[in-house]
Amino acid sequence: MTLHYLRYYFISITLLFSPYSFAVNVLNQDGKSLDFYGTIIARRFTSNNIKDDGDRSYLYFGLIGKHELTHNWQTYAHWEYTVSASDASRNATRLAFLGVDNPYWGSLDIGRNWGVLYDVTSITDRSPLFREMSYNYIDNFMRGRALNLMTWRKKLSVFQQTVKLAMQYQFKSNNENRALRQQNGNGIGTSLSWFFTPKLSAIFAASSSETTFSQQQNAGYKKNIRTFAEGLKYQSKKLYLATVFTQSNDAINPQPRNNNTNAFSYEALAKYMLTDKFQPSIGYTHLTQTIAGQRTRVLDYEEIGFSYYFNKNMQIFLDYKFNNIRNSPAGIDCADKLDTGISYHW
Q1: What is the DSSP letter of 116?
Q2: What are phi and psi of 184, to 5 degrees?
Q3: Which residue from 128, 95, 133, 94 is spatially nearest to 231, judged by alpha carbons?
Q4: Residue 64 sits in which domain range?
Q5: What is the reported pLDDT for 201?
Q6: What's the CA gap between 219 and 213, in Å, rounded?
Q7: Contact, 272 vs 238, CB < 8 A?
Q8: In angstroms, what CA-CA distances link 91 with 60, 94, 144, 278?
Q9: Which runs of consecutive H residues, i.e. helices, occur in the chain?
Q10: Distance between CA 204 and CA 195 in Å, rounded?
């Protein structure tokens, strides 16, 4: 393998799996560091669904600060913000948490963070840019980014294999004026990642959350939301394979009126570095839920895409979604989509 190939392979992996790998170091002295990172994405959706046809360009940027307190103790903070080019109502803080880290005790932080269920679902959240995933709704208990999260993480060695453990608690939201699907009661979750080899790993996560009075009275939510997720990932220098299975007793569909039945999903993604700059990908997503007494497909699509890396900072991408759903109930998308764009990372 040539050094030229290795260079671009490293670029592709870091861009996909660590969006702030090329962060700009603003401060680094006396045990203090501050990094600034971001991504500008110019993208366009083409679809028969009018609400999804048009410009979807956006920018997100963030700061990561660290401070060495002692030889073993470190504090850290992470803040990230997104700006939409076409819809100012989408502008929002994505992440905002503060914590402490110790090599023996692990890390503990609190704030707006990723829910532990995303530890599993993130492994298929790596297509060029559609990412209409089954469970990654924002501010929907512990499935995507969410408020009021306290998270403990620890890396262990078990039988000479790497294990990553996380435990999370979500405090009840004190604002029931938010949209019903963005409210939450007290909840607890955990995730476990087991690395059988450096290339092959399995990930498991579970959560249980109380719902709010408004959710129960106005949308028929059950008193407790229980969700499970399991994933399997293989990652080599050229090939990336991931599959995820999820299930919940409630509150999956974005339409509040449909959030009182069981739901199941499975997702799969494959990516391959065909050349030192060109990476095609193929994926499948399927989510079913009982609606009006019938098992209904909420998501069912294949996607084919590719990314072309000009250098370590810039790439172009194309992703096409083949929707298998036809003649579905109101509120379920039946349209195909084409997503094209270019992105710049720093």
Answers
A1: T
A2: -160, 150
A3: 133
A4: 3-345
A5: 96
A6: 10
A7: yes
A8: 9, 9, 17, 32
A9: 3-17, 118-121, 213-219
A10: 12
Q: What is the CATH number of the domain that holds 253?
A: 2.40.160.10
* Non-local CB neighbours of 204 within 8 Å, separated by 6+ positions: 120, 191, 192, 228, 229, 230, 231
Residue 235 CB coordination number (10 Å): 17
3-class secondary structure per residue, 207-256: EEEECCHHHHHHHCCCCEEEEEEEEEEEECCCEEEEEEEEEECCCCCCCH
Rounded Cα distance between 136 and 130, Å, is 12
pLDDT in tens, 291-300: 777 788 888 8
pLDDT tens profile 85-142 = 888 888 999 999 999 999 999 999 999 999 999 999 999 988 766 555 566 667 888 8
The pair of structure tokens assigned to 326 is 């036809």
In whole angstroms, what is the distance from residue 46 CA to residue 55 CA? 9
Global pTM value: 0.86
Query: What's the number of domains the chain is made of?
Result: 1
Task: Check: CB of residue 154 under 8 Å from CB of residue 105.
Answer: yes
CA distance linking residue 316 with residue 243, whole number of Å: 25
b/e per residue, 241-279, with b = 16+ CB within 10 A?
bbbbbbbbbbbbbeebebbbbebebbbbbebebeebbeb
The residue behind tokens 């993480």 is 153
